[in-house]
């Protein structure tokens, strides 16, 4: 079925559906289908050539390099001196038909989804097996569903850090639940930072990284017609007996952004600072306290593009606070398609609006890039500031 026919079909459903309770579901489908034909991205989009990172012949001492590989969606593989930290990789990419909200009389039941273990094994770099930490910003399936397989079959010594709902859902995996679930760490709101207060630093077991969770939000999946809808809102308050079976059962939970410091060998001295978000937030949610930024600047901001136009002043208000040296634009691509297919723009990504917002507050000296999945960038240590 063509994108035009899909668009007309769902507009007809929106017209026919009169129950107020079902309206957000129809709206969500309209967003997911999109109001334009698919846009294929063949090359990374960037502010200017060599916008982010150092050129291979100018990176200096390899021992002092930080490499960051964009894995797609919100997955990052960060490596420094052989030490690895991951942010929630996702490769399973079930189709839209498998994850769309259920409409009364249209679908009698929601399809089951599960991790595509072959896709994970194929696309997750082998260096990820050395990861000592996996950071998860929220509990939607496209951030959490692949984690049990990755943590139990690949990165088998990594601890998983996320909000309480993230831990409760992951306890549905028997292997992660064993030994009291010690590998899954719930970060409570009382230990997370805000614009007004400093949070708690967590250190990886190898002392190569530290990170601080920041209380954040999640932009509406759809915003328009004086209505907003966010996919699978809600939290999980008890440990699950089994992993969620449908997309709707992977709840948003309590969203976090993260401030990540790469540490010098054998010390707790930061040599590179990353701001990471896996969903846009309504300002000032997700902002770090100014005192932390006064102690050390942000070298790299990793920002989520999808749905960013559904919240005001995003990301320009955040960039005005962070003033990062460089930016990587993530979670921009259509994750209803396999990564083996040509990469298409997510219908929820308004690239024009995002670029315009970037230009408002990003320092003139800073560059930005929207990379294709599996692209690696290299950065030099910047030392204490």
Task: Offer a concise description of the structure.
The protein is of the alpha/beta class and 385 residues long. The chain is 22% helix and 22% strand.
What does the secondary structure layout of this molecule look like, with pairings?
Blueprint: H1 3-16, H2 23-33, E1 45-46, E2 65-72, E3 75-80, E4 83-87, H3 96-99, H4 117-123, E5 131-135, H5 141-144, H6 147-154, E6 159-162, H7 164-170, H8 174-177, E7 184-186, E8 202-203, E9 209-215, E10 222-224, E11 227-229, E12 256-263, E13 270-276, H9 290-295, E14 300-304, H10 316-322, E15 326-330, H11 351-361, E16 367-370, E17 375-380
Parallel strand pairs: 4-5, 5-6, 6-7, 13-14, 14-15, 15-16
Antiparallel strand pairs: 1-16, 2-3, 2-17, 3-4, 8-9, 9-12, 10-11, 12-13
Helix pairs in contact: 1-2, 10-11
The CATH class label is Alpha Beta
The total number of structural domains is: 1
CATH superfamily: Ribonuclease Z/Hydroxyacylglutathione hydrolase-like
CATH domain topology: Metallo-beta-lactamase, Chain A
Q: Compute the average pLDDT.
A: 88
CATH architecture: 4-Layer Sandwich
Number of helices: 11
Identify low-pLDDT runs.
1-29
Count of individual beta strands:
17
> Radius of gyration, Cα only, in angstroms?
20 Å
> What is the spatial order of strands in the main beta sheet?
1-16-15-14-13-12-9-8
Output the structural class: alpha/beta
Measured distance between first and last alpha carbons: 56 Å
Quick one: biggest sheet? Answer: 8 strands, mixed
Q: SSE order, as H and E?
A: HHEEEEHHEHHEHHEEEEEEEHEHEHEE
Percent range for helical residues? 10-25%
Content of β-strand: 15-25%
Question: What is the overall silhouette?
Answer: globular
């Amino acid at each position: 079925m063509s994108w035009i026919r899909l668009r007309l079909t769902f507009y007809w459903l929106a017209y026919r559906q009169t129950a107020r309770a079902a309206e957000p579901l129809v709206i969500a489908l309209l967003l997911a289908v999109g109001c334009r034909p698919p846009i294929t991205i063949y090359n990374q989009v960037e502010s200017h050539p060599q916008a982010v990172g150092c050129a291979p012949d100018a990176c200096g001492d390899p021992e002092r390099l930080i490499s960051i590989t964009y894995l797609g969606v919100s997955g990052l593989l960060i490596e420094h001196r052989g030490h690895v930290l991951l942010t929630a990789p996702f490769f399973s990419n079930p189709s839209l038909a498998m994850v769309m909200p259920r409409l009364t009389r249209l679908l009698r039941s929601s399809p089951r989804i599960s991790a595509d273990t072959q896709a994970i094994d194929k696309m997750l770099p082998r260096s990820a097996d050395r990861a000592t930490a996996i950071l998860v910003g929220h509990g939607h399936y496209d951030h959490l569903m692949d984690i049990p397989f990755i943590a139990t079959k690949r990165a088998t010594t990594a601890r998983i850090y996320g909000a309480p709902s993230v831990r409760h859902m992951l306890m549905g995996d028997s292997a992660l639940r064993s030994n009291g679930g010690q590998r899954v760490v719930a970060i409570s709101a009382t230990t997370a930072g805000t614009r007004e207060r400093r949070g708690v630093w967590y250190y990886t077991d190898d002392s190569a990284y530290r990170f601080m969770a920041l209380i954040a939000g999640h932009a509406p999946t759809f915003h328009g017609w004086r209505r907003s809808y966010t996919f699978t809102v809600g939290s999980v308050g008890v440990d699950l007996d089994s992993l969620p079976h449908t997309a709707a059962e992977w709840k948003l939970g309590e969203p976090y952004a993260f401030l990540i410091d790469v540490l010098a060998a054998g010390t707790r001295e930061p040599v590179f600072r990353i701001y990471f978000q896996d969903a846009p937030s309504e300002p000032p949610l997700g902002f770090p306290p100014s005192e932390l930024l006064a102690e050390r600047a942000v070298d790299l901001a990793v920002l989520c593009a999808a749905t960013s136009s559904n919240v005001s002043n995003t990301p320009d208000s955040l960039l005005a606070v962070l003033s990062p040296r460089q930016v990587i634009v993530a979670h921009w691509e259509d994750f209803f398609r396999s990564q083996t297919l040509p990469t298409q723009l997510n219908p929820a990504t308004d690239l024009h609006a995002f670029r315009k917002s970037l230009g408002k507050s990003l320092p003139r000296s800073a560059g930005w890039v929207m990379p294709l999945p599996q692209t690696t960038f290299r950065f030099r240590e910047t030392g204490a500031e």
